[in-house]
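Q: What changes when pyridoxal-5'-phosphate is included in the input?
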Amino acid sequence: MRDLSRCVHHPAVSHEGFSSLAVPTYRASTIVFPDAHSYADRRLRGPDGYSYGLHGTPTTRTLEAQLSALHRAERTVLLPSGQAAITTIFLAMLMPGDKVLIPDTAYPPVRGFCMNYLAPRGIQHAVYDPMIGTGIAALIDASTKLVWLESPGSTTMEVQDMRAITTTAHARGAATGCDNTWATPLLLKPLDHGCDFAMEALTKYVGGHSDLLLGSVSVRNLRLWQALKDVMRMLGIGVSPDEAALALRGIETMGVRLAHAGRVGMEFAQRLEAVPVVERVLHPALPNCPGHEFFLRDFAGPSGVFSVLLKPVSAAALNSALSSMKTFGIGASWGGTRSLVAPMSVKSDRVAVPWKADGAILRLSVGLEDPEDLWADLMTLFERLALDAAAQPGA
Ligand SMILES: Cc1ncc(COP(=O)(O)O)c(C=O)c1O
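A: The predicted holo structure follows.
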């Protein structure tokens, strides 16, 4: 072999005795075959075999298998983001003339997808009260093919009666799927509660370090898995093994991160209830949270994301108080090592159950900093807001 050929043909080296604890990152577009017959027969390898990098590498398959094991699922597919995981489920289940039901508390881009992508293609959606329970029956007609859940709901944290909704939907011939990003399979396994699809934005707690974007869908029914794979093949969707490797690293520490964030978040939520400028703390583990009884029944515990509804304060005061925070970062997303705060506006999003409160909502994601530093930062924020509230006319 001459030098130029040597440059592109890597020498085979022994792997014997090399046993690493890390999952190797296998990068590939092309997968080569040992002979022409195997290449000609490559379709016989089936969807579990390797044929092209887009459809899977040992790295992505390891992450899929790990998520399947955690969800007690038969199969998992990986998508490039959480939102892509949701839209892939919808595209796999819905045809023109069909309808999907989504909760008022769904991650807002889900509604955007329904309004701006599905509706022009003849797929309808209806928005339902997340606390509807068996009342979902009244919304399901022959065209309803999918009932979507997200529990707890984005920002306002209502916990859904998953068992009632999935049982009712199935009795009426509709499939069900749940955005389980908040809980992860460590705190809730939606497939055990009747959901057909358990979806996660791995971007959050699985990745755990705010540096990757990835989504997953886990299923028990192989027909549904095939439908997801078909959409992904047609649209040319796959994920990078580098992202999967980061997620595999993140998932190893997810249990301790989640337990810590859940404990500190819960402690903060309870203490924040006594803060004068706080109108209400929105946390599934607090008894006043809508659906708290379903949280106690179904979840193994809380994660570290919850919200705080403030008494009315001026926007200028809120912006200035937020900007003075030292330990919390201001930003979207959540579930990383760094604690985050994000002002959220839900009023314009809610149509099934109008959101009546006027105060701003702050969503908090508790990370791994020293809880004392976090609490001091929160107290600085709330003290500054209290000064503004005291200066309001009529205060
Ligand atoms: C509940 C929930 N689901 C899905 C997503 C979307 O995840 P991604 O950012 O990976 O698209 C988010 C993102 O914030 C989310 O909060």
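Observations recorded in class: The mean pLDDT is 96.
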